[in-house]
Amino acid sequence: MLQYSLRRILAMIPLLLLISFVVFTLALMMPGDPFSGEIDPSNTNPQYIEEMKEKLGYNDPIYVQYGRWISNLVQGDLGKSFIYKKPVAEVIAQRIPNTLFLAITSLIFTYIFAFAMGLFAGRKPYTLGDNLVATYNYLGLAIPSFVAGIVAIYFFSFKLGWFPFSGSVAVGLESGTWNYYLSKIHHVLLPALVLGLMGTASYTQFLRNDIIENSRKDYVRTARAKGTKESKIYNQHILRNSIIPLVTFLGFDIATLIGGAVITETIFTYPGVGQLFLESVERRDYAVMMSITMLLSFLTLFGNLIADLLYGIVDPRIRLD
Asked: How is this protein positioned relative to the membrane (predicted)?
C-alpha cells in the first residue's frame, strides 16, 4: 500500500502542472483589469497602467509569467492579493477554519441522515416509508442548493428567527470565550444543514440499493436458514458490506464539500474559502483565484487517493499493488 501511495503521489505532479498551466492561461484570458485591486481605481491614465504592467512583468511572454508564478508557487509563495493587500496564503488561512468547520458539520449531517433513511428504506423496500424517502431523494437531487438556502433563510431566519442568516459569529464577542464558540456553532448550523441535506440524497439511494441487493445474496439466505436473528443479519452482514461505497465517498468529499460551499457560503454571507473564491473571480483578484483553484485541484486528487486507500481498508478482498 505504501508503494501504491507513493506512485499515486508522484503521478499527481505532472497532472498538477498541467492544471496549473490551464488555470494560469484561463486567468490571463479573463476580461477585466487585473490591477483593479492594486492600482487606484480613480487613476485611469492608460500610460500609467501600461507602466505598472511593464514594471510588474505582465507584458512578458506567457511562458515567462507562468514560469515565474509556478516557481514561486513551488516555494510556497502564492503571491499578493490585489484586493486585501496581503499575501494570498494569509488571506486563505484566515478563511480555511470557517470552511472546514462548515464542511465537517455538513458531512456529519449528511452521514447521519443518509444512514438513518438508507437503512430504513433498505430494510423496508417498496413500502410507504421507502416511497417517502425516495420522494425526498428526488427533491434533494432536483432542488438547487441556492434555492434551498434562500428558502431556509426565509423560514428559519426571517420568519421563525431560529438561526442567523449571515456571518460566522456574533459581533462583539471575545474570541476564545464560551459564548464565542456557541455563536460559531449557532451560525454554522443552518448553512451546514442546507449543504448536508442536499448531499444526502445520493448517499441514501446508494445505501438503500446496496442493502436490498446484499439482502438477496446467498450468505444472507444461509444465515436466515441457520436461524440467525434478523437484526444481526442486517447489522453484521448486510450493513457491513453496504457501507463500503459510502466509506469510499468520504475521500471525494474532501474537495467536493469545499467546492460545493461556494454557493452556500455566498448565500449565507459565510466568510469561508468558497465565498472568497467567488469574490476573487468577481473582482479579478487573480492570485487568490488561482491559488484556491490549485488547492481544490490538489484536494480532488488527494481525495481520489484517500478513496482508493479506504476501499482497500474496508474491503480486504481489494489489494492495492
From this structure: Multi-pass membrane protein
